Each structure stands twice: as structure tokens, then as C-alpha cells.
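Sequence in, structure out.
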Amino acid sequence: MALGLQLRRQVLAGLLLCLCVGRWAEAGKVLVVPLDGSPWLSMREVVRELHARGHQAVVVAPEVNMHIKAEEFFTTKTYGIRYTQDKLDSLMKTQVHLVFEKVHWVTLFLKTMASLKNASLLFERSCEGLLYNKDLIRHLNASSFDVVLTDPVHPCGAVLAKYLSIPAVFFLRQFPCDLDVEGTACPNPFSYVPRLLTMNPDHMTFFQRVKNMLYAPGLKYICQVVYTPFARMASELLQREVSLGEILASGSVWLFRGDPVMDYPRPIMPNMVFIGGINCGNRKPLSQVCTAAFVQSVLPGEHNL
């Protein structure tokens, strides 16, 4: 496991190295626009590895956040936003409860949509705080970064990379509504790849395939509700009409924190790289209670480990 994680980090750092530096350069400058929460905890290890290899990283984050704190291996640039720490904490608690709820899939879909609307409002205000901060944008533009490392689920970093005209490396788990498929022009067979939230298995019955196809318009609607403000902000910043699909299509490399072991196999494009397990670098052993609960959920009726 340790060797596998080390190899993944080497591959990841190598990909970033190709984008960060020219042939004869010694080090690169990486602009990091992370998604707060657990995605940042995984991305932080990548930033740490880049620093160890001599690269300079600048992390741009809102003043109100959960986990993005100043550390010795990167420089932090913060910007003001129009929401409080209490509101952010309340939203995160709601998201956690939603993950563990056992409800009908229709109820889950509606609750997920409502939660995404609330999260989208916070992300929108965070992005406004960054993109409308003229002094910060001017400073970033003058800093001559080589690459932007960002999570496109919060597309503010992708918009910023487009504006600065520098390559973008996307670091994500997955999109809720196949925007990664649109951004990479990847085949997306509804009849074979289970959609997010459907709970369908990889061997679907006819009715499960129908359910899988009916989910697509609903998820597309969610994306329209959640991501329309970002397309508007991108159009204002770039001073021309632009869609989110065009913004995401500019991504040079897509790094997915998943693999066919934990996700269903699906078509991929050459610039899609799976790095599942990178978020397990700082792992701790599960307690016996957690282990027993996991086995019970996976193998009902089995009481002995």
C-alpha cells in the first residue's frame, strides 16, 4: 500500500511538473484554488509533494473556511466573503447527515438538490469574493504562474485559469451531473454506467436502465441551478459569452481521486488519470466497532470477522 501511494504521488507530481516548468527550468509556480473540506485534505498532500520537489505554491482561499490554514510549504492569499463561519459549519453538518440518511431514492434526490442549492450559494459568494477582487486578480496576473491546480466542482479556479491563460490541472472525485464527461468529450453510455445517486448495480435490469436514463435530465437540471452563476461570472470576467462546458474543456489534465476498484468501470479519455488512494496517505486503523459495522453493512447476516 505504501509503495502504491508513493508511485501515485510520483505520477501526479510528474504530470504537474510537465505543466509547471519548461524544458530547461528548475522550478515552477503553481496557483492552487482548492475546494474546502475533505477535497483540500487530499490536495494538500499534492502541494506538499510539489514543495518538496522545489516548486512554489500559492494557495488562494476565502477568509472563512474549514481546513485551509497557513502552512510552511505554501504561501496563502486570502480574500473576504459575504458569509459567516457559523453558516458554513451549519451547511457542512447538513451535508454529513444527508450522506448517512436511508430514504427512498426520490426523497434522496430532492434533499440532495436542496442541499446543493444552499452549497451553491456559498460557493457563488466565495467565487464573487475572488473574481471581483480587482487587486488580488491583478496581483495573480502579474505573478506569472505556470499552472493552476484546482477542483472543478468549484469552477472558480477553472474560470481563473481561463482568464490568466495558463494550463489547468483538475483534481476531483467526480461531478454530480457528468460535466466531466462534457468537458473531456468522453463517451457516456447510460445503459452501462450507473448514474450517481441511483444506487444501481453494474449489472442492471431493464427497469434499472430506464431509471438510470431518467436520472440524467434531473441531474442536468441540478447543474443548471448550481452552476449558472459561475457561467455568468466567467462571462463578465472574460468580457464575452462563455459556457461552463467551454471553461471545463480547457482543462489540460483531469486527476480523478477514484479507480475501477471503488467505482464502476467507464470510458475514459487520454487526459483522464485515476489516482484513487492518494487521500489515504495519512490513514489511521479503524476501531473494532467501525470494522464490525462496515462488515455488517456489506455482508448482512455475517456476524463473525
